[in-house]
Amino acid sequence: MGKVGKILLAVVTVGAIIALNVFVPGSGLAASVGGLFGASAAVGSAIIIGIGTLAITLVSAYLNSALFGKKIDYGKQKVNVRLEDATRWLLAGPVLQGGACVFADHDAQGNLWAVLVHGDSILNGAPQYYLDNILVTVDGSGQVTTPDFKTDDGDVLWTLKTYTYTESNPTPPGATTLQAAFPGQWATTSHMLVGTTYTVMRGRATKIKNRYKQYKWRGAVGLGEPNVAIFGTWSKMYDPRDPTQVLGNRSTYKPSSNSALMWAWWRTHPFGRNKPESEVNWQRVAEQATICDETVTGVESTQKRYECAIAAQDNVDRAAIEANIILSCDGQLVFDDDGKSWMRVGKYQTPSLTLGRRRDIISMSSLVAQDGESETQGVIVRYMDHNAAFSIQPSAAWYNPNYYEAGKGNTFLYVDIPTCFNHNQAMRLAKSIGMRSQPLQKIAPTVGLRGVRAMQERFVEIQYDNEFAGDYEIIAPVDVDESGFFCSLNLVPVDANRFDLLSGEEKPRPNSASSTGGGSIDMPSVTSVVYNNGRIEVQFNAPLRDDVTYEFQPIAQSDLATGQWADMNTDMDALFAYSGPVDSYQPQLIRWRTVTAGGSNTAWYDPPYLLDPQVLASVTNLTVTDGTGEVTVSWKNPNDLRFFASDVYRGTASVFGSASKIISNYGGGLGEIQYFNDTIGPGTYYYWIVAKDASGSEAVRTGPEDGVVT
Question: How far apart are CA 696 and CA 206, in angstroms?
């Protein structure tokens, strides 16, 4: 089969590969629709793919809404805003969410109150609170106990309390403390906040000397109060595999981040696609949800195959948000013969349809890459990284083994999949996209009527000749000609490893401490934590970015419940930090984080590093001088304020366990040279000296040193 010229390929630069199946009304059939990414060229309202003389125009309202419509602004979801008509959010899965400030005022006692509406979704369980991107702890009364948000005297400045609703009662509980602070204003039916999750924040009235620490943040009110965001698992969705859940009774549904269940939830949610639940093929959804729950092992940990989280703005097209969910699992939207929809997630399956040259394939157009040509040599997926302050981060690059050459000026295709929050998943999606958009071979067979069956398939087996044979993925619509007798397919090779990472394919996260990349916020890479002259000293590696500063804080372990973390001095040029005087004779905890010039920061290192108490110094300069009828033993006492006395041990072998204590509590001053003459019969003897403090705690013993008596 002759090879044809270079493929004509126009693609968009955002989104990702979407494979859809669009039902053809009245035909009982479904047409496969796919998006193919290759070179970075923006187009208007369609994606054009040409293979040889065959050109196919993919025009789909669904596809266009996903790729060209208004995009979700994920930077806005974490902050508080004060707008008359603020964006409303629908949330599902694990999401960090800020929200709109709908009320702020001082009460009669001077306390600042603010009401922050996070979204129109149910929050499951207690949230984690972030104030200006700092993870904080709250006690049972909602008081923020993190030192960054307390006075120098340890007084609490801020109190947070979150309220949500239930499926059976859309009105969340009222904030009684707020109602008491503003009688007649909030205890009315005008302020029920129906169908929302909201947080009430109170800033305590405090002395002027403490206001510099209380009002130094970047909240929406503009007084210097902190921005409030909460992290939790949002919404509940139907899982057909769970017999305790009843379809149609939303009060029985449960929270999930499963991509297949998330798609079905959005498809049927009144504020989503608003399709009847009866129009979903729940049996197929259950099958795909099980695939999503499969365990995948990555370089950092194990995780589920496909998870998803969304924060959907009310002014973004509902179909575009559905497409974002589909992107999280490299899925296909499928309509069966009954018109019911389901989503097929990305996983290899042995093709059930085989198309052969003798029986099915009438003609073949093809493209085989010449000299490893490709305009991009790999794929980078931008995803929502929970380890990088819940920001959109690039994954490590997936290198296409067919085209990538180390040391050369390689370029990469960038794909946004903000509904993905796992790095391993992002890299698997990058591989799937790369193998689909950057294959060595593309073929476009024209087949007979058996090609109609391909409309319901994702994979087919081709048996044409020695060059074009094996399993292929359908990447464009199955086009039936006007006569209804011939079908055209667009295919790329696929194998069982398409949706999984082989050994060496997954690279560390670019923003992980072990990475050598730049551009993301890395945690301090600490190399040494020691006591030195009554203070703690920390050494660390150079940061990946020039604009960051490392912060270190120690606290005595015994003071953790009631005390305050102290600040250490950090020299970023010397890669060195040191504390003020500390009690090195009790355990100390040290935590650290990274702060950028722009004000972003990582969470504090957790759990804090435990520095064990400094051990009592041992004696030094132990010597044993041979003699007649005796030996002379000498040593130097430690320069340690805890030193009290030493014990002397002697044995006839070099094993300490067989030695006997011959002197107890041999005193002397700090750093003083000590000696004694040991009168004993002829032989070889071994000596050890053990320093101890007044309580009897011992230092590491010194010895053995041997002497000979003649």
Answer: 49
